[in-house]
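Dear support,

I submitted the protein below through the web form. The confirmation email said the job was done, but the results page showed an empty box. After a refresh the structure appeared. I'm attaching both so you can tell me whether what I see now is the final result or a partial one.
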Amino acid sequence: MYTIDHVVMAVSDLDEAGERLRRDHGLVSVPGGVHPRWGTGNRIVPLGESYLELIAVVEPDVGSASPLVRALRERTSDGRDRWFAVCLGDPHLDATASRLGLTVEPGARTRADGVELRWRGAGIDDEAREPWLPFFITWDVRPELHPGRTPAGHAIDVSGIGSVDVAGDGFRLREWLGPGGAALPIRVVEGGAPGIRAVELARSGGGQPLRIE
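What the results page shows now:
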């Protein structure tokens, strides 16, 4: 059974994007680190069991041939920040990768405090995955080091990712996810090119979800 681990937003400037989320939605982001393989950097919006990830190309010459970097540049070519991808926590990562023809690859980044975070992923940098479809991850860290657990201090009471609206082919999404995706709160909506349209964050007190488009 998959879970929504995090949702990625492609941004042009990490600090500016973080400030917009704080100003517009009361969400605090914290520095993440650099992904040496791709020359990308990130900021994290912790939500407990899940998180939002702001990601930007910070070292343009490092991963220029990467499908991931090419897609990030395309999403932010006009200087606007946009939702980019859904990452699913997958306890059966190797089986999923085998079913979809994806390669499982290790990943790591080092936080500002020197702690290294490690994971295994499938699909994030793979031509076999259409950019609007989810990719998959299994963390290789103690539970308390999951990025969603990072202290933040939001100005709003949010408790996790409630749902994600995605434009695209519903049949293709179901085929991609297989039986493990049946209960995921991913809604297929109509209109425009395939991609994430909105993310709704659940409120701790059960109030109206916070919708970010």
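Response: this is the final, complete result; the empty box was a page-load delay. The two ends are 27 Å apart (CA to CA).
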